[in-house]
Write the structure tokens for this entry.
Amino acid sequence: MWRSYAFRVTVQGLLTLWAVTTFTFVMIRKMPGNPVEVVIDQLIDRQQLSYEEARQQAAGLFDFDPGQPLIEQYADYMNKLLHGDMGKSISSAGTPVANQIKRYLPWTLFSVGSGLIISFTLGVLLGMAMAYWRGSVFDNVLTAAASLMYGIPDFIIALLLLLVAGVQLKLFSMEDVLGGVGQDVHAGLNLPYLKSVVQHAALPVITYVWGTVGGWILTMKSSTISTLGEDYIMVAKARGLPERRILTAYVGRNAMLPLVTRLAISIGFVVGGSVIIEFIFQYPGLGRQLAMAIGTRDYTTMQGIFLVIASAVVFSNILADLLFGMLDPRVRVGGEE
Amino acid sequence: MAQNDVVMSVRDLSVNYLTERGPLQAVNRISFELHQGETLALMGESGCGKSTLVMALMRLLPSNARVPNGEIHYTTRDGRVIDVLKMSKGKLRAFRWSECAMVFQGALNALNPVIRVRDMFYDTGRAHGMGSKDAVRERALELFRLVRLDPERVFNAYPHELSGGMRQRVLIALGLLLDPQVVILDEPTTAVDILTQRTIIDVLMAIRDKLGFSIIFISHDLAVAAEMADTVATMYAGEIVEIGPVNEMFYRPHHGYTLGLLEAIPSLAAEAEELVSIPGSPPDLIEPPPGCKFHERCPFAVERCSREVPPLVDVDETHRVACFEADRVIAKARETIQA
């Protein structure tokens, strides 16, 4: 039972990845423009070259031929991919895509990951408290605040943070918060470095928490309210169980079930990061890298990053499945006894 | 039944629900006594306050409920008298389930779906200082055998792995874990099929006779009430309008509403047209009608019924009724029931 399930999940995951890879491959190449044209345009702009001169100069910069038939490019790409090679970046010539991902992924994992943990924890605790004291001032104020926060797009929050807190109120200076880490600290396990990393991650994390905590709060609140109305909560009270036991094993656990799937799917999107947020804060994560790759039509880098994102989503969906089975015996696969 | 074996005594109990339009009188000045080993059945339409009454007995009322007056006294096995309404939170927690347990209707949702049956027994045992897990387990398996369940399998199962009838019996076993003196059954047979109903009633009667607890019993099924109950109380609009021994109530009803309920039971012997439903619907409990609350629907009502509230008076030592026209009701009852 278990082995056939693992097999099914693995095959499904691989099929999904193949489909996503193929789809993004085609879509990326069907975008208007290509890497060579982007550079040609830049050369015309910057060096006032004629189109013909620019084209010749640009062609020398790439070992990439946009004229090659799509199907050949695809076969080439898939062949390399199957051997574990994601190719080399087109715009930063010579850099393997895998190296780029290795370099930028940790930043995104750190910032969006801690944002997700903070947001989820806050949301679950506040949502549960609000459900317990529903109708109170605490509940009403937070519900309104959560809806408001949930309704504002995160890039607006990011811009407001920079403009209001940074430029107008001067709560921090720009070089202290933009980028991934300060210029004058040495990478490694030393206090100034870690402090600088946290300081620079603060704004993206705040933005991320601000933009998502409302959703967690509202979902957890409504989930808790419906759990509180269940007969088994009443029965647990009638059985004279201590409040704390009811709160954890009867209310909390059941109310969190619907959130688990959402959490796992959010984990999938952690890897993709928040493209616009990272761009605004110049945060050196995978999201900003993706935005830059799109700008220069760096096909291989885009493909590489999309592949990482897709893998993360596929993997986290499997995780959601397993986690849900652990928490809710009703959907457990197969039966373990 | 002697006067000194009263387990639970309810005096003048009222429960209001606070609503936008004002207080809703769900239970209005109810008094009754429950004796050791007695089974009391509460009958009446949906919304007549039966469930509210039993919830009040365990102080499980929702937060918008108020108890403006009344007393609930409970006598423990060693003779201590407890004032249920004045108990502290901690004492109340200890009182619940160990003295007075409840088997809820709708066994489907009464068990936490994500934990095993055994954990619900362990939780309950631990909350009441029942000692080791082994002690809880032993007692649970013994109870499962009493309610005719496969002990080992059910003990380790999740609720969704059990059928509705099995879950209902698990709840009954869970209710008896701490050997309570009073077990409240809120429609224990509504959610299950007719054969399972039979099993559950047989099981209940057998363990009641073996363990000797008292039962307060809510059922829409008068046949079940007739079979199980020693005493029957008819509730209408939050009041007990008639209470008496089961045979008295079923063969010599003195209240128009009791008679109406009896006439509404289909019987295999009776012709279809003899089935009579009670016209109208229950009154608004926020602004109840003056006089007897049943007078608008009562075929025996006279002018006085709409002015004066009939008090609950003795028909004989054990049978009491709140009706001015009880003589005419019993005359009619003799005709229809004997026929």
Summary: Residues 191-228 of chain A form the longest helix (38 residues).
